[in-house]
Amino acid sequence: MSFLTLKFPRIAGRIELENCISRPTMSLSGCPHVANFKAVNGSSPYRLILTYFVSCSTQAAVKRKAQSCLCHVCGQLDLRLHSCLYCVFFGCYTAGHIHDHAKATKHNLAVDLTYGAVYCYSCGDYVYDQEFEAIAKEEKTKAAKFVGTPCSVHAFLSWEVTASEAQLLRQNPKRRKITSNSTIGLRGLINLGNTCFMNCIVQALTHTPLLRDFFLADKHHCQMASSDQCLVCEMSRVFQEFYSGLRSVHIPYRLLHLVWTHARHLAGYEQQDAHEFFIAALDVLHRHCKGHNGVSGNNPHLCNCIIDQIFTGGLQSDVTCQSCRGISTTVDPFWDISLDLGPSGSHSKSTLSSSSTSSAPIPNADLSVDSNSSGSSTSSGSVNNGDSGLLSPTGFEDVPTSLDDCLRRFTRPEHLGTNSKIKCSRCHSYQESTKQLTMKKLPLVACFHLKRFEHSNRFRKKISTFIAFPHELDMTPYVSSHRRANGIKNQSHSSTLLSTSDNKYSLFAVVNHHGTIETGHYTCYVRQHKDQWFKCDDALITKSSVQDVLHSEGYLLFYHKRILEYE
Amino acid sequence: MIEPVCCVADRRREKVHQNIKMDLSWKVKDVQMRAVINQKLIETGEKERLKELLRNKLIECGWRDQLKAHCKDVVRRKGIEHVTVDDLVAELTPKGRELVPDDVKKELLQRIKAFLAQQASI
């Protein structure tokens, strides 16, 4: 019942956060009865009750609390137990035993033993006293340290307005409330000459929830020599523009100029690839974020800038030697996943179908890649068969028709062929091997790039086949631990439990390409308010539906993780 | 106590009475059990950890925001001078209970069960 700790009247007493019409009843000095009590007894009775019965930070206090927190009248322990501040009498609030005590003894102050709030019988409500609040906070922090949950204490303390924030709020009296039909966050972008490739990515980025929260919370602290050369600062300004409430078209000329100066290959008025721009933009943003990574200083590969926090995942590549079954594993970071759309024969995947001599045992053999595979080949084989939906070769020869098809194909074991023998680190000989890619670490925002543009030496064409993509995507089947769990049965159920519940993603932006490989146009669907979709076509924004989105061709698909873990 | 009269109604009444007595003894045991469990939960610090977990889960699923919004509505409707914490508790408790997602309840139940199993084995 956390609403008991609402800091309502107090905040309202300091500043008018919301436009509260009525004046708060309580003055800043708080309840006079508490003041009287403090004048006579000081604040030590309150602190004592708190340290022994509310927020314990010693083993002795915990023991005492465990034994004595019972109503002195009825012996119950969970009817909102309160303690008299004068004589440490415990009574239920719900059953009224503490009320009876207060009436009989004229002890008009009681402490809630769950939260430490003080009830005044003369005022007829819980009261706030700055000194008591400070004591409660102090003891709570101590207790949390004692129990061993210190990190979350600071994370979830309710917001208390500092002097400078109060000043800011007073200087900016205008308040804006986001309602479910508000269009804040939607702004068209002028096309500055074939810049729809940029506009669609800007739309997708500005509607990435975590990125939006980062920028609107003013979290970027520029480390560049001059802030007007910093792309992150410019993005910050773009976010301000987008969420300012203005409905006019925004002209992203500064952004374009910065992109031109920092990613020279995109400069000029030619048509560009939106995917290329996306990667270039992330790269420049990531470079300009430098200086943010304080914690990860010891690990050069792990950057904790906002771009890496949101977009970076880890791709595990397991190369298995076909002769000794040794596996060498590497994990590489990725920002996006490019998925082949053509038939298996056309690309790198061709190796599997061409090496027909060995292709038959591969699907089963490959999956028992785990270290103990040779010993327990029968058991792992049977397990693999159970998972045939994922691994069976059927369907791979065909052209993929859905995002799941593509991802399955992406994470299946692939024979590297006779021409590309790799030196095995275990048996130190050049052997044929198979390679399997899986997701070691899922990014918070997963960007899928459907390779619709085919460049081969024979022809260049756009693949316009329809690829079905879901509104909600479960990435569990493509996670490394899941693939491995298939082979190893003794994995604790907790890990599988985690992996089933926590890898769900929901779609929040889709970039579409209209036209041919030579010339075309980009548009972007973005999600607002959880389930409203809008189509952004440069300066034009129109309302759309989720059906429209799911039936569109799809070039870049942006998914956002639904549940974020604590780090 | 009840006089032993050979009458169907009386026998029935006696039976009911017995049932009540049994119920009462169960209730006493239940209360004792709850007290012991509660004591263990507090002594080991598990209660604080569970509360922390619950708090995080409720924040995560939006429960806290929903309830906060509802609180604000109540305060606005009644006017800040005429609302007490008791009023809010009375209005929000049923709503608050109803809004807790089943997942959260399940997870907490599982944690408590695991804790009890672990305690029983010691």
From TrEMBL, chain A:
- One GO location term (cellular component): nucleus
- What subcellular compartments does it reside in? Nucleus
Any Pfam family hit: UCH
So what EC number does this one have? 3.4.19.12
Q: What is this protein called?
A: Ubiquitin carboxyl-terminal hydrolase
Establish whether keyword Cell wall biogenesis/degradation is in the entry: no
Give residue ranges for domain UBP-type: 29-146
Question: Which residues fall in a compositionally biased region of kind Low complexity?
Answer: 348-359, 366-392
User: Where is region (Disordered) located?
Assistant: 348-396
Q: Which UniProt keywords apply?
A: Hydrolase, Metal-binding, Nucleus, Protease, Thiol protease, Transcription, Transcription regulation, Ubl conjugation pathway, Zinc, Zinc-finger
InterPro entries membership:
Papain-like_cys_pep_sf, Peptidase_C19_UCH, Ub_carboxyl-term_hydrolase, USP, USP_CS, Znf_RING/FYVE/PHD, Znf_UBP
Q: What domain of life is recorded for the organism? A: Eukaryota
Task: Report domain USP positions.
Answer: 187-562
Q: Which GO terms describe its molecular function?
A: cysteine-type deubiquitinase activity; zinc ion binding
UniProtKB/TrEMBL annotation, chain B:
Q: Name one Pfam family in it.
A: EnY2
Keyword Transcription regulation appears in the UniProt entry: yes
Its BP terms in the Gene Ontology are: chromatin organization; mRNA export from nucleus; protein transport; transcription elongation by RNA polymerase II
Gene Ontology annotations for the cellular component aspect, listed alphabetically = DUBm complex; nuclear pore; nucleoplasm; SAGA complex; transcription export complex 2
Query: Listed GO molecular functions?
Result: transcription coactivator activity
| Record HAMAP family | ENY2_Sus1
Q: Which PANTHER family match?
A: ENHANCER OF YELLOW 2 TRANSCRIPTION FACTOR
**What's its job?**
Involved in mRNA export coupled transcription activation by association with both the TREX-2 and the SAGA complexes. The transcription regulatory histone acetylation (HAT) complex SAGA is a multiprotein complex that activates transcription by remodeling chromatin and mediating histone acetylation and deubiquitination. Within the SAGA complex, participates to a subcomplex that specifically deubiquitinates histones. The SAGA complex is recruited to specific gene promoters by activators, where it is required for transcription.
Q: Identify this protein by name.
A: Transcription and mRNA export factor ENY2
Q: What organism is the protein native to?
A: Patiria miniata (Bat star)
